[in-house]
Design a protein that fits this description.
Pfam families: ABC_tran
Keywords: ATP-binding, Nucleotide-binding, Transport
Strand order of the largest sheet: 1-2-15-3-4
Distance between the termini: 32 Å
GO molecular function, one term: ATP binding
Number of helices: 7
Organism: Cereibacter changlensis
Protein name: Iron(III) transport system ATP-binding protein
Helix content: 25-40%
Order of helices and strands: HHHEHEHEEHHEEEEEEEEEEE
């Protein structure tokens, strides 16, 4: 079966002329207009993915479901195909429902991202909102590998929550009223302090990642038993003392219950929807 015959699947009700026009249009859209007569074994992995997408586009649907379309591609080809999906969506305006376990894929291509937790939708929002303002502790932990720390809010004023962290009183963006709350922190929210100010912590582990050292540190606060991660241009041996500066974070209500009390719950599946 040639590429053209593959793309023609589902177009049998059209006249031969209309069918040929649809095939040409679909192959041009995915950048394979010169490959109509080729066989599947003559194509690369990325080209085969484009053929599958062309077959879906040929019938001109209002919605296309893409279930793990990049799962079997290497990292470089995966990034290339993500760029293609974005280009094709922008040119056609067709709604894509892109199902993936890889949150980086979802964030890269999404108009909206839905995060599912135990079969239920925990939050649907644009990628930036999911990252900056997670609705639940589970979303906070899953998106961007955040950490959730139990804290007590003393005041909430104009979208900023005041809380005590160790011996320090801090004010951060949040939605939690006075009372028990969760503080969501990610690597970008923390920095190593170059002065004696800041929250004291002890290094318990480190790894090298993308040009920096990622330090796993345990803060000097009785209620904070979960390690935090902070980037450093230089290594620090386990046992070393450091001080942390809090750049930002997100404070959400702590409603209690089993789901909130389990920080290591099973990872959720991000369901991405690119709106047309």
């Amino acid at each position: 079966m040639t590429v053209a015959q593959n793309v023609a699947f589902g177009l049998n009700r059209l006249s031969p002329a209309d069918r040929a026009a649809r095939i040409t249009e679909a192959l041009q859209t995915v950048g394979l207009d010169g490959a109509a007569a080729r066989q599947p074994h003559e194509l690369s992995g990325g080209q085969r993915q484009r053929v599958a997408l062309a077959r879906s586009l040929a019938s001109r649907p209002s919605l296309i479901l893409l279930d793990e379309p990049l799962a079997n591609l290497d990292a470089h080809l995966r990034q290339s195909m993500l760029a293609e999906f974005r280009r094709i969506h922008q040119s056609l305006g067709t709604t894509f429902v892109f199902v993936t376990h890889d949150q980086n894929e979802a964030m890269a291509i999404a108009g909206l991202v839905g995060v599912m937790d135990r079969g239920r939708m925990a939050q649907v929002a644009p990628p930036q909102e999911l990252f900056d303002r997670p609705a639940t502790p589970m979303v906070a932990r899953f998106v961007g590998e955040g950490r959730t720390l139990p804290v007590t809010v003393t005041a909430l004023t104009h979208g900023r929550a005041t809380l005590r962290l160790g011996d320090h009183l801090v004010t951060l963006p949040g939605s939690a009223p006075p009372g028990p709350a969760w503080l969501c922190l990610r690597q970008r929210d923390l920095a190593l302090s170059t002065t004696s100010a800041g929250l004291g912590a002890q290094v318990i582990d480190l790894r090298f990642e993308r040009g920096d050292y990622i330090l796993s540190v345990l803060p000097d606060a009785p209620d904070l038993t979960e390690p935090l991660e902070v980037r450093s241009p230089t290594p620090a041996a386990p046992g070393a003392r450091v001080r942390l500066t809090l750049r930002s974070g997100w404070v959400m209500p702590r409603a209690g219950g089993a789901a909130e009390a389990a920080p290591d719950c099973e990872p959720a599946r991000p369901l991405e929807r690119t709106q047309g």
